[in-house]
Amino acid sequence: MMVHLFAKNQQLKYTTIKVVLALAVIFIFTVPLYLLTCTSSSPPWLSFTNHILNPMINFGNSCNIFRGKWIYYPNGANSYTNLTCSEIFDQQNCMKFGRPDSEYLKWRWKPTNCELPLFNPVQFLELVRGKSMAFVGDSLGRNQMQSLLCLLATVVYPKDVSSAADRKFKRWLYMSYNFTLASFWSPYLVKAIETEPNGPIYDRLMNLYLDEANPEWAGEIETFDYVIISAGRWFFGPQIFYENRQVVGCHLCHRNDIENLTMFYGYRRAFRTSFRTLLTLEKFKGMTFLRTLSPAHFEKGEWNKGGQCTRTWPVSKLEMKLAEADLKLYWTQLEELNEAEKEGNEKGLKFKLMDVTEAMVMRPDGHPNHFGHGADENVTIADCVHWCLPGPIDTWNAFLLHVEEDNARKLRMRMIENCE
User: Fold this and answer.
1) 60 class by beta-carbon count within 10 Å (0-12 exposed, 13-18 middle, 19+ buried)
2) How far is CA 161 from CA 43, 101, 144, 174, 350, in A?
3) Which residues form a coiled coil (predicted)?
4) Which pTM value belongs to this model?
5) Catalytic positions
6) Are 168 and 200 in contact (CB under 8 A)?
7) Which residues are paired to 67 by β-bridges?
8) Residue pLDDT, tens place only, 4-45
């Protein structure tokens, strides 16, 4: 009888502990930040909505959201269409230009040891309330930003507050959230000058000043809370490299009097300069994200020699791998981010990874191919670089939301510790 009572009491004890732990977890992940600031001021109840955090199922170190596989999701993972979002450029508007299949829309990313929820626009907007976010990079960065605009448009549409008509530099304001979203088109990240302004669009020789960040973004970025940095395909073209305003080498410049330093030299220093710029700006207190290399999927020829991307389903990670040059660019990005993160830790600045590369290697089906083009664009060249909207690129913003959530979760836990 005593043994029975002891066992029963122990079971009750463990049940009580589980309930307490569960309540503690709920408290940590649902109480808004302003309730954890150790102040006596009244919280703004009316402005708070209960969508701040949607924690992942697994919070352990074994969960890496960037490693996993695509799983079939017949209901579709996309919450918008080209009819509900007016911000889709024709180049990525695959529906408008008659792409006949839709299976590429019916997949979602499944991390190996956990779950990645679908993008929640209300949740995202609450996390960035009163803040600002900038995308800095080439047209793939703009591709992601337009995906974000479309995902958020299912809740609210922003006001265009751009100071110029140039669509390469845009700003939007979500007035009810006081959230600013901006795009700075800077494909080389550093200062770049065309040697032949009226020359060919493709393979145009550029002068790159590798130790000078492009002032068009560097001069505007200091007040932003989030900065997403990316660059890639433009570095495959011919360039002359300058440092301290002196020629130090080139890539594909075909000049015997200049040392060939390869594109990897310029690529590394472009990221190094960009990160150092953010590290040394006096007023910059924001969080920097590196969005890793987005792979191209030209098959049956190179981009200018008949290459196309006609697949309609994802592939396995064993079926497709990064090209050797892409892999080297990818590791270069990670190495420079690692160095920036070390220095950032000393200065209280956060550098985060948004690793889209593995997931996108498996999505050769997600490109426009010939189902998307501008009014004056050569439609004989397939686009196997950018991504259809809607499409698998929407997962990038689910990654972005997760990293923001994780940072907010850690901040809450630190605030709780400081209040004890």
Assistant:
1) exposed
2) 30, 36, 19, 10, 28
3) none
4) 0.84
5) 139, 383, 386
6) no
7) none
8) 433 444 444 444 444 444 444 344 443 333 333 333 332 222
